[in-house]
Amino acid sequence: MADTKKKNPENRQSLSESESKKILSGYGVPVIVEKTAKTKEEAVRLSEETGFPVVLKGLGAKLTHKTERGLVHLNLENKKAVTDAADAISKEAGSDLEGFLVQPFLTGKREFVAGMFRDQMFGPVIMFGLGGVFTEALSDVSFRLAPLTDIDITGMIGEIHSQKLLGNFRGEKQVNMEAIVRTLKGLSDLSMAAPDIAEIDINPLLVQPDGNILAVDALIVKGKTTREMSFPEPVSPESIKFFFYPKPIAFIGATATMGKWGHTLPTNTISGDYNSEIYLVNPKGGTIINKKAYKSIEDIPGKVDLVVVTIPASKVMDLIPQLQKKGIKDMLLISSGFGETGEEGKKLEKELVKKAKEAGILMLGPNTMGICNPHINLYCTGVHVRPKKGSTSIVSQSGNMGTQLLAFAYQQDIGIRGFCGSGNEAMLTIEDFLDTFHEDELTETVMLYVESVKNGRRFFESAKKVSKKKPIVLLKGGRSKAGNLAASSHTGALTSDTKVFDAMCTQAGIINVNQSLEMLDLAASFSSLPLPTGNRVAVMTLGGGWGVVTADLCEYYNLALPQLSPEITAKIDKILPPYWSKANPIDLVGENDNSLPMTVLEELMKWDGCDAVINLGIMGKRIMSSHLAQSVGKADSSYSKEFLDAVVNAIADFEKRYIEHVVNLMETYKKPIYGVNIITDEQDKTVYRVDGKKHKAVFFPTPERAVKSLARMVEYRRFLDTHK
Fold first, then answer.
1. How many angstroms separate the CA atoms of 412 and 484, rounded?
2. How much is the mean pLDDT over the chain?
3. Domain count, the chain
């Protein structure tokens, strides 16, 4: 017999199937009744006691993947069949065989899988999905981090695509859902109680004809699966706030050469009307950007709150004693050449962090694009972009991605609370920023571009806490193999499995997007519109085709288009011609009376049968009327230029009044209104402000973007409703 205590080179030890099931049974997992035999003769006897047909399996700690090795024999109907199966198992298993397992042969058309593994970044992860031979082929599985709540378990079960298998199926009763819940809860409890368990695999979790489930096969593996990891020490929100509210700033590495970081950063900061002292430091002294350049940070006569460093990486270490002597506590390290470059860079970065901590200096970076706080006119970034002050906070592990988001915010009039390119996160991490957003009253929406996290479990807990107060929109880089490699070289940090990361986002209430455009659209929506209370949508359109497309999109994204009630139908009957659609979507039948969409829209906002309104084709008439006026002016001299200009101006005035009307309705009825332009030009934005109003009008160029944004806001509303 094999020594079950012997450990493999990875310090891992597999328990036998029998041992595994005994442990699982103690945590509420329903396991099949089975018997163990040490010899072939005993296996035959126990088979007779069990009653034919039976299943015979090889038993042993080293006997994993038994089916593939031919160590599982099914539907054995007599003693000879058991004897032959035992001989075959003995021959294949050899010295690894410790005995035999005898089970009754059960029938069932449905098989599921459940298990646990320990992720290097996030710890114990519970898995559930379609089992048997389809587990690897179809990968229809869901994940959640342990410990699981009832909400988590419900979400896991609801995510798998094979939903029909959980109900009545081909003459068999629906699955005992209480048993499924008990199994997943048991796996969660076991993972927390026994940190020495590395993996648990239950496959199949067989559904019997009466709907009850049994763990037919199970494996528990003990031992470490992840290396010991050290995490950066948490930084308090109060300390982070000083970075975004400094007074005197010194730029170390300032230069007169246009295009270099030492010129661009102070230039952008000065020209952004930053209202405090700005000092420049260059060892040659002289005058730079019309300011005196000091040869050393110690030569600056006054106090300095923040230093912005752009000198080469090899020279940064020498700054630490000077900053300590000057009493400077905060350093924004723009310089690259650290952890993102490889092992030598990581070593240098680690030593720098050690020296900075000893000196009481907090470092943001290295390898960062800068920071921005429009609330105090602080625009210290590598790209000239100055969004208005607002409530959306952005942290990006890619400086270029972050500044793109800032540029979009400026272009589309989205107000920014603050921005940070977090760089390598040697000291200040994205987890620290999440804790800060939770406390910051000015932050109402959080946007994150993430390639990796330093402390997965802390990230999860912090994000879940923030999500209960304000939405987090996250774009993950490094999803593909190529992207993962690029992210590693970019951030110098680890990335976790995409499926686990996505599951963590769902569990934490993070709105996880796949494209930067979706991220930007959600920034516009969350910062401008009231949150919908449900998924019922009323659609108002200037043309039937758009309404059909939007209805299809709503169904795809699980948004409901309720039938119009007799009351709302009667009200619209008084507004529109008798040939209107009398259905949702509401077709305005191409009427040119500009009062009609305003009146119909108000009736829909009053209607308690919908939670949001999408209006299509109302905005954009200004452009079309301008084009029409040009054509008429060129072809028909009977129309004066003054008349044609008046027509265009009237349409432009209507659009302005329509925007004000939309905002006023949202302020009154607390429902979001999503607009879609019929056509756009360079003057159009996504967000339109109205003086004195909290909400803003939002208009997208396509129905797809409007519907998708609404669907993600509904998704966030569900999270809030289930996590009160």
1. 31
2. 91
3. 4
